[in-house]
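ok trying again, last paste got cut off:
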Amino acid sequence: MKVTMQDVALEAGVDKATVSRVLKGDHRISEKTRVKVMDAVRALNYRLDKNARNLSTNRSGLIGLVVRDFTPDWFSNFISGLDRTISNSEYEIILKRTEGSPLRAAREYGKLIDRSVEGIIWIDPENFPGESAAPVVTIGFRYPGSYPVIWEREFDVPTFETGVLAGRLILNIITGKPVPSKEIVIKSTYSRERL
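nice, full thing came through this time. structure:
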């Protein structure tokens, strides 16, 4: 059976609202109470219900990644870099592919918006749906209103470092942290494979 916040409250001898405040880091909670609650959390192996939290905060905790295909040689390096950054946050990646089809691109974009993604990283320049309800980082191309990450040379491809950079950029945009500029230009790499 799943351990609830109420279970933690009973174990710690406090009310459910106090458990919630401790887990949110409310500074008004005494150290003694915080320790009691956190001891109960560990003893019961309590895990926060992200769906409930997302409903109460009106945030999904989701970032969409849209690519043309999963097979290019650069893909595993890029996704590894992106995952390195995103996994250190409270966000998760939803991966979609367009298969080079404008119809599929529009459908996958709609699914992401239906899931209330907080940001999108898009790597299929020929099938970008246009205006977006969520902030968008475009990789390898520019689109008005997006945050493009582009290369000095036209034929360079995403790398591990590009994934890290894209992850940091979308997290900064979503969380309201400063963004270095509206466009990021990456110095050339030596690869010749196209997107």
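cool. The chain has two domains: 5-48, 59-186. Residues 5-48 form a domain with the 434 Repressor (Amino-terminal Domain) fold (CATH 1.10.260.40).
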